[in-house]
Every structure is written in C-alpha cells, then in structure tokens.
Amino acid sequence: MRSTFLMPALLLATFLMPSSTPLASPIILATPVPLDRVDPARTRLGALRYLGGWELASTDPRFGGLSSMIWRNGRLLAISDAGAVFDIAVTGKVPSGAVRGMLPAGPGTGEAKSDRDAESLTADPASGRLWVGFEAHNAIWRYDAALGRAEAHVEPSAMRKWPGNGGPEAMVRLRDGRFLIFSEEAPGPAKSTALLIFPGDPTKSDAVPLLAGYRAPPGYAVTDVVALDDGRLILLHRRFTLMEGVSAIVSLLDPARIRPGHAVEATILARLAPPLTVDNMEAVAVSREGGRTILWIASDDNFSPLQRTLLLKFALVP
After folding, report:
1. Which positions make up the signal peptide (predicted)?
2. Structure pTM?
C-alpha cells in the first residue's frame, strides 16, 4: 500500500513490531460508530445500506494494519501488513475477536515489518487453503487451511519489476479456479494498472499469467477484491488528498469482461467520504445473512494513533 501521507505512521510502526509471543490481553474490543456523524440516522449509501459499524481496538500491539480479510465459518479472518492474523466473530450486534498470532512463515526472515507486508488474501472454499500476497518481495504464499504451515510460495517473474510498495494489493480466486492479482501501481495496458490472470494456483511452477489492466476510478487505487456468490467481483478503492482527506469507493465488476491485453473498469456502487465514517479502507469481505448479501469493509490504521481501525457492515441493495 502506498501512503505517502502516512509516512509518520510507518515510522511509528517500526517501533510497534508485532511479536510472535502470545500476550496476556489479545482481545479485540468494538465501539459503535455511525455512518454519518452529521446525520446519525442515515443508512443509505448508493447501492449499499448501512447495518452498523465499529471502531476496533486492542491492547495487543500486534493489532492494527488490517489489509485484507475473508469470511469463513461464520467469522472474519483478517491479516495485517505486518503478518498478524485476526479472528473476528460477528454473530451478535457487536463484534468480538482476538489476535490469533502471526503467519507461520513468509518472505525474508520476518524480523522486518516489510518481510511480512501482507496485502491480499484469498481462499479455496473446497480445501480451505489460503493464499497471501506480499508487497516488498512481490510474492505469493500458499498456506494450509488452519494457517499452521506454509505449503508453497513463488515470486512470479511477471511481478518482479512491480514497485516494492505497490505490488499484489488485491487477489481473488474465481469459481473456475483462476486467480486475479491486482497491482496498486505497476503499469498495465491502455493507461491502467497491471492485472494478472493466472490459470490456476499461482504458486505452481507452470502457472504463467496473462496480463490485463484494471482502470480504477480517477485518483483512486484498488486495495482489495472479493467474489460474490454469482461470480461478480466487489472491489474496494482508497484515495487521499489534502483537500478531501481519505475517501473510498466500492465497485462491481463482472470478471467475464476481463481480457488479456485490454483494460477494464468497474461500476461504482458507493463512495465513502467525509463527513461519513471513513479511514484508510483496505479490506473487504462478503457473507450472506437472511438472504441478503453483506459487505464487510475494514480500514488499515498503519499502527498510527492518528488513525482508526474501522469495521463497517453494509447490505448490498438488489
């Protein structure tokens, strides 16, 4: 994730390096927040309906930096850009959770935050296996379903020249077994950013991707992607300007429109901007609830006291 406006936070993060040693108080606490602080009764936002939101916090210094998450077994499984793993239950009106620990392995030695700069996460619903995309090393690692061990990893040649802080920002496994990996900054065709189409598991030696392009809304960068039950994709984007501050866009894309050598755009569903509750939104997950499609959106606080870890819950309006 490139966040030039957050350089002080990144410096602070070097002093908040997560430890692999379990701590005494790893519980994640949640405080409710409105969608609109000016109009607390507001619930509609474009094609989304606000169902609730919370500011998350924990005394565990490993907590923060949420960069990607998935919905699995009735819970949110999230990872941070320092390699920490979080488990968040949302069965009641207020979510609760805990810090599960650190990824069991990854690029480098793990001593530096950049070694475990996990930015993207996806899973195979059949086997439960998980894939994580790491910036800095521009690498993809595959883990077992329990996140207990690493099974394979690769630094694809197609990603070798991607910027160290603009690499595999978003990744999704499609229903047909293909993988899409979105770069935050690497150039793609027709004035877009790179979108790699892998025919299967990207960690396999014979997985040679095709290059397409994704054109984000002007001024925005893609930060996460997740597939709906019907195969369409929800994409999350983030932008920062001195005039507007932080804002986010949620878009919808049919992967059938993605073609090698061409750039594709998504349809905007909603935009989050002040005075709405928003921060550095980087993670999105999808669940089902009472026949409705639910979107979960979370922010990366960059381990900064000036930012918040937000978890927002929306229903996708048909």
Report:
1. 1-24
2. 0.91
